[in-house]
């Protein structure tokens, strides 16, 4: 059972991330609150009714590989056909390329519902998004004409092929080779691992995006190029031709997302074409990757939301013991036990905080592309750059934490597979790993994003946070100044930590030793801030008598809980960030 | 691959928990450092060579139930026979009952190695421990004579049967009925769920300890009695007689510990005998339960240690990227990356902290039984009572956290089942649930243990902690005063939080709302304190030139890392504990 939380999603999109602000860019003339609501309703229906019921059966059945053919779990082919029919794949892409011309932020919200409903299924479309982004940005006109229309409908899907056994986080160590054929095409050979939806039976063609090294490519990342390798070659007229020699030769046995085929791919002189410039592979990859990183962050939100809904339903139904002061009464539903309520409130508050971070990142990505003014675009780009690693890492950590709490709320039932809570916990665990481990995100955050543009991205964020501190402090609702009393010191702590990390002369090892702790702090402060933004908005509704007052009160409550239990901890975070590489240098301590 | 960490275990047992102090009780005349070392070596060998290799095969094969007969995974029967042969089951029980007469603390250390090697296997012996404890404390002389000898060797195993579908944490809701047969025996009927090792093919008999209600038993926990129900009835001469009507009718499909048969048990007029007094079921249960709670805490340590060893080995072997400042060199092992080292150091420090907490709890349990002086016994009992919920809950949370970090260290490989890291993560997740969920432990801690004996248990603990602050402050090694600077404020924070929770007039809901956060703080401060105790001891070795100085430095490093990253956070913990039930009362916030 999953019900897309349309009201919560709309609150995050419209009141916190202020997606409607995109209208002033002129790029989304049709965007309106009604349209957003209608699209989310429709997506929610698809997620609830078509995808969610296939989640557990897909976990049980898994994928099968026989003679290079991958069979997805029962029902997935049909669901994918409906996904194509619904036009969901092209939602967030420009109309000129065949998309629906709506914001990425709305696309992220739609994806959240699919990921909640069926994380394994949603990975297929997610990978296609990345390839579409890369082709729009770097593809030739011919490539766009040949591939985008079918990718945009989802009739063809796509993959992103970076990893090799010796080249994971260290992408530059890859060995896949591309030799020129002399006719503009290339002949690519090598093996790739962990290829999500690398082969399947849902789409009539698969467009593989593969990183490889050309003969003149120097070692490391600088010599890498990105190639487009269709599973089935496409004739000039657009019809399908010969089968290309890129094949799935193995499926991984994973702890979760069993419904998603994770393939070992082999290319033997597979025919491919450069996407963008030779040696421009990393730049092209980062276009796919940034889209994917945000999408994986949203996945963390999605799986957490699914786990939450299941835990909430269980807690409202399961009767066990009595709430304090009710001895002698018949057993109460466990939601009345303070400890269970605390778990549920923690789950919900973290989900809403992570959702807000991800949607803000998506809106920033839209603004970075579509704002009319160049400075506005640059400002938004800085915000997007800063929020991308935070969205990815913090939200996926929350996916794991919340799905674990989901099990705990169930007690013994949570450990029994039939209940379904365990599947969310197993599924959620991959998200902190793929599309750049969360450790890689932390290095990106402190090593690049903090110091870029003279530190502007964080300085600008802090300015916004302090505006919210001000807004809360001066509110007539006495709950809001309480928020300010937590948010203000948390912002100071974040600023101090960043200052320490990028101080001139800071040893790089010390900086890297503090990266993950800083990333966590940045997620907590940003997430907490956005819940406070939501609380300010909720208070405005209350004051104006608009909307459901209980809903508005709920948003203020969640912000308060997060502030007291999470933001309140920020002032002591610095010591963990500062403790440095010195304390890590002791091999004997590790038994190494 | 698992290698019992004998040196680390001995350091925790002898230097931190000061097990040797038990010699003054006179109860353990043979206890010596050499004997401890010899027993741990032998247990380690059994764990490393016999049990560890069966861990993954057992996960894959699982248990089978056919016609009431449970078949354990290949190799488990033979391993169990060797366990019996080794005399491990009786290690920690008095010689007068057929045990080896060694401390529970040493038994806990032996169990840690078995639990690391094969958590699913170790659950069988763990349940037998509890029944032995209950029979020694509450059994009649005839029962002791009839059952203890075979339980003590492990030739017979035992179970603990509390849970029913409607009676989990709320034990008092159970419906299993016992009717007197008129000959001193009882006729018991009902169904129990989640019965660990409820049926299996390793022992020739199984002694079930079952909670049931007698005809005069009032509703709730006060009307409950504990019954001994042998799988096969035992004749007066001790030979096996008729099959009793208690049977496994189902096996649960669990996320982990697949090698452990978790049974649904049905009793239809099964023949049984009271253990202790009628209506004394809860008291008898708590004897089993307290032993089991500590054992489950040790399990958290064990599974975390196993996950750690695997992650460490991978990090030393896997080459990927270069450490800071080494551009252009061939790829380094990932252990040289600060973020990976940070994960490993966090894992190791938390394991050692949790191990120390559990072993101190075990030593306290031994002292509580064997100290000559009554006041000493009472003091030790208070310590045991305080440390039992902390050992159980904090260590099992660490089991989950560390096994999750273990996956993260592996990157993509961690999510692939063949690697084994995923199994630890799946296995570890049950420990925060069974033998009283960690939420139940938190209620026990704040609801009972904090206020017992006028608050003496915590006051005494704080006194010990402050002595260590003093010891560290005055050390000639400049690292130790740094420890004191974190430990002192952490102790103050713990004291302030406890004071707030049990203040006269404190609303019970507010207290319960803060229970889990307090429990976490109590674990962190206690664990951090014990690492500091270890550091003081290590410094003594360094000063006297005894032992391996690298080993001693390592212990100081781990204490420092824990102090900077965990203890340093204690001063802000109070707000999360204090936030109270008010912020949890909002149904709309939860979408409830």
Count of discrete alpha- or pi-helical segments spanning 4 or more residues of chain A: 19
The structure class of chain A reads alpha+beta
State the order of secondary-structure elements of chain A, H for helix, E for strand: HHHEEHHHHEEEEEEEEEHHHHHHHHHHHH
**Strand residues, percent of chain A:** 5-15%
Q: Most extensive interface, residues per chain?
A: A-B, 100 and 101 residues
Radius of gyration of chain A: 24 Å
Mean pLDDT, all residues of chain A: 97
Helix content of chain A: 55-70%
Instruction: Please give the number of β-strands of chain A.
Output: 11
Structure notes:
- The structure is a homodimer of 592-residue chains.
- Chain A is of the alpha+beta class.
- Chain A has a domain at 438-583.
- Chain A is 55% helix and 12% strand.
- Chain A is built from 19 helices and 11 strands.
- Chain A has helices spanning 6-16, 33-51, 55-61, 76-86, 104-117, 119-138, 141-153, 281-317, 338-370, 374-410, 421-428, 438-449, 456-473, 479-501, 508-513, 515-544, 549-565, 573-578, 587-590; strands spanning 64-66, 69-71, 156-161, 177-180, 186-196, 205-213, 224-230, 232-234, 240-243, 246-251, 262-274.
- In chain A, helix 2 packs parallel to helix 5 (104-117), helix 8 (281-317) runs antiparallel to helix 9 (338-370) and helix 13 (456-473) packs parallel to helix 16.
- In chain A, 60% of the residues are buried.
């Amino acid at each position: 059972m999953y019900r897309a939380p349309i009201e919560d999603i709309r609150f995050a999109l419209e009141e916190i991330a202020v997606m409607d602000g995109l209208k002033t860019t002129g790029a989304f003339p049709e965007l309106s609150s009604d349209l957003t609501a209608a699209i989310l309703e429709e997506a929610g229906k698809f997620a609830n009714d078509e995808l969610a019921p296939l989640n557990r059966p897909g976990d049980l059945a898994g994928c099968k590989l026989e003679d290079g053919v991958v069979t997805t779990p029962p029902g997935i082919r049909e669901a994918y056909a409906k996904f194509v029919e619904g036009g969901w794949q092209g939602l967030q892409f420009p109309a000129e390329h065949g998309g629906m011309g709506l914001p990425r932020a709305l696309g992220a919200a739609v994806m959240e519902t699919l990921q909640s409903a069926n994380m394994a299924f949603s990975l297929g479309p997610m990978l296609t998004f990345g390839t579409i982004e890369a082709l729009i940005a770097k593809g030739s006109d011919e490539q766009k004409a040949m591939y985008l229309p079918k990718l945009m409908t989802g009739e063809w899907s796509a993959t992103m092929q970076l990893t090799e056994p010796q080249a994971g986080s260290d992408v530059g160590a890859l060995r896949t080779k591309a030799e020129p054929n002399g006719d503009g095409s290339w002949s690519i050979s090598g093996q790739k691992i962990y290829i999500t939806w690398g082969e399947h039976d849902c789409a009539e063609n698969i467009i593989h995006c593969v990183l490889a090294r050309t003969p003149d490519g120097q070692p490391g990342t600088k010599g890498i190029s990105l190639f487009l390798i269709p599973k089935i070659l496409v004739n000039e007229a657009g019809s399908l031709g010969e089968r290309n020699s890129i094949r799935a030769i193995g499926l991984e046995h994973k702890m979760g997302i069993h419904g998603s085929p994770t393939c070992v791919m082999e290319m033997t002189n597979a025919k491919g074409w450069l996407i963008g410039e030779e040696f421009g592979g990393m730049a092209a990859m980062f276009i796919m990757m940034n889209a994917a990183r945000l999408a994986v962050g949203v996945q963390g939100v999605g799986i957490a939301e699914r786990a939450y809904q299941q835990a909430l339903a269980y807690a409202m139904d399961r009767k066990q013991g009595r709430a304090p002061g009710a001895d002698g009464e018949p057993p109460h539903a466990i939601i009345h036990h303070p400890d269970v309520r605390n778990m549920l409130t923690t789950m919900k508050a973290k989900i809403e905080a992570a959702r807000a971070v991800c949607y803000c990142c998506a809106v920033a990505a839209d603004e970075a592309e579509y704002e009319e003014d160049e400075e506005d675009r640059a400002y938004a780009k800085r915000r997007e750059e800063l929020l991308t690693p935070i969205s990815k890492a913090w939200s996926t950590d929350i996916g794991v934490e919340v799905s674990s709490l989901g099990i705990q709320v169930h007690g013994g039932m949570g450990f029994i597979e039939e209940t379904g809570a365990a599947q969310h916990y197993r599924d959620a665990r991959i998200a902190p790993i793929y599309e750049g481990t969360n450790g890689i995100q932390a290095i990106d955050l402190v090593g690049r994003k903090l110091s870029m543009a003279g530190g502007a991205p964080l300085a600008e964020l802090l300015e916004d946070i302090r505006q919210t501190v001000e807004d809360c402090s001066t509110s007539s609702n006495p709950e809001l100044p309480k928020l300010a009393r937590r948010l203000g010191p948390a912002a100071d702590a974040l600023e101090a930590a960043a200052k320490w990390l990028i101080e001139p002369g800071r040893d790089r090892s010390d900086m890297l030793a503090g990266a993950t702790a800083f990333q966590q702090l940045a997620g907590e402060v940003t997430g907490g801030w956005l819940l406070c933004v939501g609380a300010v908005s909720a208070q405005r509704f209350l004051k104006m008598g608009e909307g459901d007052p209980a809903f508005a009160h709920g948003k203020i409550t969640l912000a308060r809980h997060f502030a007291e239990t999470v933001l309140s901890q920020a002032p002591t975070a610095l010591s963990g960030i500062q403790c440095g590489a010195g304390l890590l240098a002791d091999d004997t301590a590790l038994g190494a």
